[in-house]
Amino acid sequence: MGDSIDYGNASAACYLNAALSKLPVLVPNAVSICIDCDDAIDACRKQAVPSTKHCSECQQYFDKQHHEGK
Questions:
Q1: Is the pLDDT of residue 56 over 90?
Q2: CA pair distance 49, 62, nearest whole angstrom
Q3: Between the CA atoms of 10, 16, 19 and 22, what dihedral angle is there, to the nearest 10 degrees?
């Protein structure tokens, strides 16, 4: 037989599951806006590099910064 703590945990789990079910499901590679500048990522770039999160210009800057060791 359960006690008030078990009942509270079950109730909390019910509310948590209800809240989580309302969250949008993120689709892999669905990013279409650059995470740095908020510009749209060109469709050709997304097709060539589906996992990209940067537009071409920001990717060039990102690559330059990382190649220079900064």
A1: yes
A2: 15
A3: -90
Say what the pTM is: 0.51
Helix (H) or strand (E) holding 7: helix 4-21
How far is the C-alpha of 3 from the C-alpha of 62, rounded, in Å? 56
| Residue type at position 42 | D
Q: Give bridge partners of residue 33 from the DSSP assignment.
A: 40
**Token pair belonging to 61:** 């800057």
Contact 51, 35 (CB under 8 A): no
First to last CA, the chain: 61
